[in-house]
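[Q] Does anyone have a clean structure-token version of this?
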Amino acid sequence: MLEDGEIISYAFVAFAFIDATTAFIVAKWMLKSTIPLVSLGERMDRYAQVSLLRFAMLVSGALLLMVALYLSGDYRLALAYGVYLLFFLSAWPTRSRLCAELKLKENEREVVYGR
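[A] Here you go.
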């Protein structure tokens, strides 16, 4: 049987990973409305806002896991936190990610890459 502390720990982990999944889904949904905008500058500004929101959601899950790790001291939560950091790193904005998520044309890609 699971003890009360383990149940709470698993609930923290589940909530953190649901939060991460939600962050990616919400970001993708918000970026769909960004693609039709005419100006590259407007799309990049909107992408920056969406990225900040995505990171805010991911940070909340990371903080939740850190608090759970601190309160319980369970090494499995440290492992879950490490896996969660991979989610965090996969969301890191890069030029190639910006081009892919905004579905930029070749001439717009050149502007982003500074060629």
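[Q] Thanks! Anything notable?
[A] Residues 4-113 form one domain.
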